[in-house]
Queue: 2 jobs
Job 1
Amino acid sequence: MARTRRVLISGASGLVGTALTKSLRSAGDEVRHLVRRDPRSSEEVRWDPGAGRLDPAELEGVDAVVNLSGASVGRIPWTAGYRAELRDSRLDTTRTIATAIGRAKAAPKTLINASAVGIYGDRPGERLTEDSAPGSGFLPELVVDWEAAAQTASDRTRVVSIRSGVVVAHGGGFGPVRQLTQFGLGTRFGSGGQFWPWISLFDEVAAIRHLLDSELAGPVNLVGPTPATSDRVTRVYARELHRPRLLPAPEFAVRMLGEAGQRLLLDSAEVLPTRLRSDGFHWKHSEIDDAVVAVVHGEA
């Protein structure tokens, strides 16, 4: 009988953290959560990433840490204050965990740290793998710093930076697209030819579990194996919700939402899951259609 694995998760109350916790516990693993308030049970551990506080002793006996903390990039506009929150919520948490790992008497074997496909920026006409150079601008530079903070723990543990695409799920990143479509306001944005990296929630969780058992280290793209354009994504939602699509929203109108609107809706990144595929991972939802159908019809 395999030994129970002990996993410590930050950002456990979020979409992915909640699903991951449920999946791990159903498999018999022991899961504890990092919380910023007083613990309510033995399954919670107090920390204060803003002050860089996490007792290294809490990592003793832990096999893996999964850090999913970070404010949502989907909130707009990106004011100066919110940009600071986007950075601090990622860098403070990652540095605090990396420091605790460095000071622990017996470090966890693995740190899986959230990252994002936003590292690539706007790259029309390119097929992007983990070996592709980062883009330029606020979001790519933030993700570069985020991954660098995680890598400071690499002399004590195996570090994996999961560059996740938009998670297709109830409450996921395509939520606004679904809501607009449900109200008959669905549309494509700009040309519609820009690629939106995506992954179903089921496969996001399955991929993290795969990486817990893998020997991969460094960046890993967590995206579906078949890239999808924004035109295709919005068409699938309109079809499955039995709603029309309006005329396209022109680029100048989207740009009025500011940099966040442009980065999230108009940027193109055809991201490929090269390392995940080579490591033998198998997707349940290999097409965006499969993922949207599962969510809309309650199969995911």
Job 2
Amino acid sequence: MKKLLMSVVLGLSLVSSLVYADDWKPYDKNGNVLRTDRDATGKNAVVSTARYEASKIGLDILENGGNAIDAAVGVGFALGVCEPQSSGIGGGGFMIVRFAKTGETKFIDFREIAPKGANPDMWDVDKKGEVISDDKEFGGKSIGVPGSVKGFLYVLEKYGNLDRKAVIQPAIDLANNGYRVSAIMNMDMKNQMNNILKYPATAKIYLKNGKPYNVGDLLKNPDLAKTMEKIVKDGEKAFYEGEVAEAIVKATVAAKGKMTLEDLKNYKIKISDPVKGTYRGYEIYTAAPPSSGGAHIIQILNILENYDMKNIPAGSARYYHLLSESMKMAFADRAKFMGDTDFIKIPLNGVINKEYAKTLKNKIVETKSQEYTEGDPWKYESNETTHYSIIDKEGNIVAVTFTVNGVFASGVVADGTGILLNNEMDDFDTGHDKANSIQEYKKPLSSMSPTIILKDGKPVASLGGLGAQKIITGITQVIIQMVDYDKDIQEAINFPRIHDAYGELTYEGRIDKNVIDQLQKMGHKVKNGGEWLEYPCIQGVTIKDGVLRGGADPRRDGKALGF
């Protein structure tokens, strides 16, 4: 039997038709977010993405002769339409592809780069090194050279079965016909309204008479549809040269940023090997630098592998304490060592070394929260050496995470194109001589972590998510729930999470109050992030006993579909 599996930051048994009608919504009649009815299983195919519309498009592509790569590209363009506040062709990302015939796994890096002339002095900072204005987060100085179009078209042309029109046309139709604004998107519009109002081309699309769209309103983007039609006709040149490129440069410069036509024309993707680790016999393939996410997911798992997690009650104070301490040590290393390996040398193999993880485990005190500085992974350095995901009928696997960075990104839409431009420059550190300091053509450090998991050489799961640094801790917790506690993908995604990077443990209010009280007695500084943390938003798929299962995060708008 054919088996097609897709999970989108990027898997109910359906046999011959979709269970869910085209009017499925992640909110009720009063505009409140619904936290149920997010997962799906299937005998032939499963798709899980951050929006129902994108999941449907991905599934349709697979049903109509497309392979995993075709579906991944189609979903990418679709998410840029219906989830524009988080992703789109004005941004960049990472992709992992594993080829069934050869067993080869490749990492495709289409992360944004700093434009020509970018340097640490482009932002005004105070004595503490903090940027005085919001130039680093919004406006032209926050915009990097986007890579999504080049990355998507490269893999489509090299590995896809279908042509550009077959894959991109559904997204064009979605942009022309419109989609319904969700409760989450309405909230994002309200939160970013002041920034959107600064740019008329952006406000024209994402505000209605100067106000956020209401939940359930129809939102169209015909300018973006026209841009995608140009890409269908002329390929990547339609984006990186000509009218669209000129509009991107004009909008960036008008918003006080730096970018040239040469920056766009000369943009290149990078092909390398993914970071690989293991956890209790499972092989973990995940994102390589300039993502720090993959390395630190493996690092945290390596630390926790030294504990008998399955006999530590999930959700207990000890469970969250060990997670928190492991997270803090990983983020201490991240802040010190990680960056773009085309510009600096980093101790990647040391960070993911299991012996190094044992030294970190030995620092943990079971009854006390501690602060940590970076370790010394250089001692363990050697020369040895992943949102949304898809597995097609041939066994090829694709895992993708891409973004425009912050909610509604730079706030800048290139007039006439419908393209919302990223604010990835915000991911650089301020100041000079840091691993992640800004340089022209350098890629900022990322936490995006598209991840593929194998067991005995066969795919068992693929997952990824959105949510900045919380991606790292979110994916790690989902993996632990699946491997150590035998939870299915939806149960693992739903399980209450924490996040602790630099000494503040943010927790979901669904965690038992007695557990939080115990953590405070251990010295943890805690913060209630609400019943459900808004981020990270994890989507994943699994294959177990021949059943394809997709899980989608109820923290935002995710939905899995199958047949």
